[in-house]
From TrEMBL:
Statement: the UniProt record of this protein carries the keyword Ribosomal protein: yes
Protein name (record): Large ribosomal subunit protein bL33
GO molecular function: structural constituent of ribosome
Family, per entry: Belongs to the bacterial ribosomal protein bL33 family.
Pfam families attached to this UniProt entry: Ribosomal_L33
Gene: rpmG
Domain of life: Bacteria
Length: 52
């Protein structure tokens, strides 16, 4: 898998990087926002894609 398609997800509450994923940057231009479980906050929070 190419490294340039790797994206990080950061918790919107505690600002920690909890998840990594891949996306096709040619088809998806906007930043992703997903509700994921944060082990530091111990609840489901909004995780936003951040820069490398």
């Amino acid at each position: 898998m190419p490294q340039d398609n790797l994206i990080k997800f950061q918790c919107s509450e505690c600002k920690r990087i909890n998840y990594y994923s891949h996306k096709n940057k040619k088809t998806i231009q906007k930043k992703l926002e997903l509700k994921k479980h944060c082990k530091w906050c111990r609840k489901h929070t909004l995780h936003k894609e951040m820069k490398k």
